[in-house]
Amino acid sequence: MTVRKREGLPRQDKDASADPAGFSKEPYSGVRLHPLREKHRVSKLSMDESLELLLRGNAAHADRLLELKVTPADRYAKIGHGEADYLVIACSDSRLLQLDSEEDTHVGIQIRVAGNVIPKRGTPSFEEIRQSAAKLHEDGLVIIEGHIHCGAVNERVKWVEGGMKPTGSAPLDNLLHEVFGSTPSENALAQLTKARQQLHKSIRDSGAVVYDWEHGKFEIIGAENSPAIGMLVDKWKRRHAELSHEMDLKDALKKQKPHAIAVGEVGLPYSLMTVFHAKQNEVFATSGSENGLDDMDEASILYAVEHLGVRHIPFVAPGTAADNERITKMFGRWEADLRGMTVHGEHILSKMLDSGQLRITRLRYDLETGKAAELAR
Length: 377
Ligand SMILES: [Zn+2]
Prior knowledge:
With about 375 residues, the protein is an alpha/beta fold. The chain has helices at about 10-20, 20-25, 35-40, 45-70, 70-80, 125-135, 150-160, 170-180, 185-200, 225-245, 250, 270-275, 295-305, 325-340, 350-355; strands at about 85-90, 110, 135-145, 205-210, 215-220, 260-265, 285-290, 310-320, 360-365, 370-375.
């Protein structure tokens, strides 16, 4: 990695350090003590409660945008015009920090995928990453974000020790083939290498970060001298410090326990956590595209439902009312993909959806207001 003089990120970084309040304003304080949030921490939310918490968080997001006189459509257009500042490929785990906030002047794209893997060329998940990388401006940055206690890495270690036998779930098998190494750091470095090999035409600067919430540390891997990565890590550090004031993260994040597994269409102008004003350990996340959900997405969802007991799957896509038809069609495809998935030959998600044990909520994220509205089937 060479250190270059950059136009985009460092200039904005100077602005940010001149006005640290620009990023440090705690956007959550208004919803901090919501009873549903408190309930989630100590017990289990029903599907209705999960949706209510998400929509209440989203209302706070929309209020904040209104207060700042910011419309998500501007960020959406910037991404569409290839002016994004960064692309983060982060694990689906609900304990990661989000990088963005309504106040943020940097425009980023966040892709969530189990084990922060770079999937095989030609798969929908790889296409999401490839197309997003092409939306970065000239000095835009790609970051792989891993974390301690990564379920995907731990599962892989067990799978390798057990002789790499089929698990009974094709998506899970395919995901386990994409994860590498026996620690989150080894995996992050391996995924960074894959990203550099497979995306070399569209990225100039790239690196990896592993987030350790127990010690408040961010290990930078493979791009130690990149000023742009340093700037983004500073943002994460500030966010971590803010949240540490509210709770003991080491204790609160001991076990992953999200109440929803959100599927967000790539191209959302804010991360799913910001769209829902979600705190750490509330929303497990994966990214989908018009090409449907593939093994990487399905493995994430399966893990959240089977291992984490999540019963609510909000689908989220950006658009205006004019996009309802397109979005409804895409959501129909996503649902069909989930219903078609089998584990040991059984359509387990389809059965759970039919019996009411599991719910999908279809939400359009309004690009004018930032409000999430439920779409009819
Ligand atoms: Zn993980």
